[in-house]
């Protein structure tokens, strides 16, 4: 039987999270530190461990069938690959930064300036859209030191917390775009591989839903049930079960992880008690 070949980052910010996603999909993968490729013992998949920069090319050329990498690399490399879905990790932004003591006057500040970056394509597109003339200095790493060593006036790079910028005496002045990890696929997948991919996607969907949602259980007086149901949309509609205590019920539902703290006070004000919020192992809609 054919195997679906998936390329993931060998070592870096996306490596562990990519493996973790596959493992949560029930796919067994053993990886030593020197492993370059490995098969799963319980799913028809072969994992290739590569530099993230090379993944778009390998997927375009069918060396790998699918890949996990940052959207930023897909935009920069501009290879013929299809984006399947966002994966909800590896979030970052691509921003312009300048030395912190500089007076930033708006985007035209960058006109006729030198900017160092590892993302020349994304930056030149941004400059063209904004009618800026910028001299782009392409370097492959340690972009943040470029201004202090006199290579460039500013930088265009990936930022997540901003602490690397601060450490290098820089300030972020424009966010050009946001990026996160995505799943891409080759444009020519055999029917058989497409079938394996669908099976994998079904599992990924379930894993991502379960990460984004929580199961909530609470007790409430029957008189409050309808008001509480308004606040808790649930997957279809919440489950309401009678409690042994006369006039009370237990309400169960699913809520978005990031909505939880907004909802909680409203639930308490409506008379909800003994509120339990628990993680969901897998969620299939
Ligand atoms: P490789 O050796 O595979 O080329 P790399 O040095 O290019 O590794 P990493 O720094 O591991 O790459 O980043 C991989 C991806 O992680 C980035 O392309 C980006 O999509 C994402 N990412 C998320 N947060 C950050 C961050 N703070 N800094 C850098 N990349 C980040
Ligand atoms: Zn890279």
From TrEMBL:
Its EC number is 2.4.2.17. Residues 211-282 form the Histidine biosynthesis HisG C-terminal domain. Its main location: cytoplasm. InterPro entries: ATP-PRT_HisG_long (IPR020621), ATP_PRibTrfase_cat (IPR013820), ATP_PRibTrfase_CS (IPR018198), ATP_PRibTrfase_HisG (IPR001348), HisG_C (IPR013115), N-reg_PII-like_a/b (IPR011322), N-reg_PII/ATP_PRibTrfase_C (IPR015867). It catalyses: 1-(5-phospho-beta-D-ribosyl)-ATP + diphosphate = 5-phospho-alpha-D-ribose 1-diphosphate + ATP. It is found in: Cytoplasm. Feedback inhibited by histidine. Its cofactor is Mg(2+). GO terms for cellular component: cytoplasm. The keyword Amino-acid biosynthesis applies. The keyword Zinc does not apply. Residues 51-205 form the ATP phosphoribosyltransferase catalytic domain. GO terms for biological process: L-histidine biosynthetic process. Pathway: Amino-acid biosynthesis; L-histidine biosynthesis; L-histidine from 5-phospho-alpha-D-ribose 1-diphosphate: step 1/9. Keywords: Amino-acid biosynthesis, ATP-binding, Cytoplasm, Glycosyltransferase, Histidine biosynthesis, Magnesium, Metal-binding, Nucleotide-binding, Transferase. GO terms for molecular function: ATP binding; ATP phosphoribosyltransferase activity; magnesium ion binding. PROSITE patterns: ATP_P_PHORIBOSYLTR. Catalyzes the condensation of ATP and 5-phosphoribose 1-diphosphate to form N'-(5'-phosphoribosyl)-ATP (PR-ATP). Has a crucial role in the pathway because the rate of histidine biosynthesis seems to be controlled primarily by regulation of HisG enzymatic activity. PANTHER family: ATP PHOSPHORIBOSYLTRANSFERASE, ATP PHOSPHORIBOSYLTRANSFERASE ATP-PRTASE. Belongs to the ATP phosphoribosyltransferase family. Long subfamily. This is ATP phosphoribosyltransferase.
């Amino acid at each position: 039987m054919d195997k679906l070949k998936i390329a993931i980052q060998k070592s870096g910010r996306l490596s562990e999270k990519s493996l973790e996603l596959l493992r949560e999909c029930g796919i067994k993968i053993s990886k030593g530190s020197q492993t370059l490729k490995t098969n799963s013992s319980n799913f028809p998949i072969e994992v290739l461990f590569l530099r993230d920069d090379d993944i778009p090319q390998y997927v375009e050329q069918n060396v790998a069938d699918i890949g996990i990498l940052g959207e930023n690399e897909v935009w920069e490399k501009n290879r013929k690959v299809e984006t399947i879905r966002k994966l909800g990790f590896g979030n970052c932004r691509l921003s312009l930064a300048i030395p912190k003591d500089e007076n930033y006057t708006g985007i035209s500040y960058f006109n006729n300036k030198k900017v160092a970056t590892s993302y020349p394509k994304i930056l030149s597109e941004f400059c063209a859209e904004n009618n800026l003339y910028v001299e782009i200095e392409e370097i492959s790493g340690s972009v943040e030191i470029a201004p202090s060593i006199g290579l460039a006036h500013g930088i265009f790079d990936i930022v997540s917390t901003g602490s690397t910028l601060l450490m290098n005496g820089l300030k972020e002045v424009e966010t050009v775009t946001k990026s996160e990890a995505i799943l891409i696929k080759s444009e020519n997948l055999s029917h058989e591989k497409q079938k394996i991919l669908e099976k994998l996607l079904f599992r990924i969907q379930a894993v991502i839903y379960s990460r984004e949602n929580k199961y909530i259980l609470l007790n409430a007086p029957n008189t409050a049930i309808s008001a509480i149901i308004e606040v808790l949309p649930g997957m279809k509609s919440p489950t309401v079960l009678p409690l042994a205590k006369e006039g009370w019920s237990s309400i169960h539902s699913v809520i978005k992880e990031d909505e939880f703290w907004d909802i909680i006070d409203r639930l308490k004000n409506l008379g909800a008690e003994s509120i339990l919020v628990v993680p969901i192992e897998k969620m299939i809609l």
